[in-house]
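Chapter review: from sequence to fold.
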Amino acid sequence: MMLAAALVNLAPAAAQAPKKAVASPALQKEFDGFIEKFRAALKTNDSAAVAGMTRLPFMNDSTIRDAAQFRAKIYPTSFTAKNRACIQRGKAVYDRDQENNDNYFVFCGELIFVFTKTPAGFLFTDVGAND
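The token string follows.
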């Protein structure tokens, strides 16, 4: 009897364990199409195409509000040959953030490249430290 009561008390805790977010097949397909184009742009080192697939102002920074500023300030440092190669072969990991946005992350050494579903489709939205 006590064992049954203990198991009943444990059930809600197990049911509340956080679940790993999983992208729907349609969302995954949309991202796959986007990342294929993004990787093609990286392969040819096409900073203009990458800027065109980026949400601007980049990371809400008013000094990086257009494609020219992105290409001058972000692309040379974030998209080195090593990082471009990493993004091309790296596995994108899906998750949802606190605002319920669909995101994919590609981890490259010290950096995380973030791609977010927006009303305009997927865009490159952030680069941050891999902590």
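Two observations follow directly from the output. Residues 101 and 118 are 8 Å apart (CA to CA). Confidence is low (pLDDT under 50) at residues 2-15.
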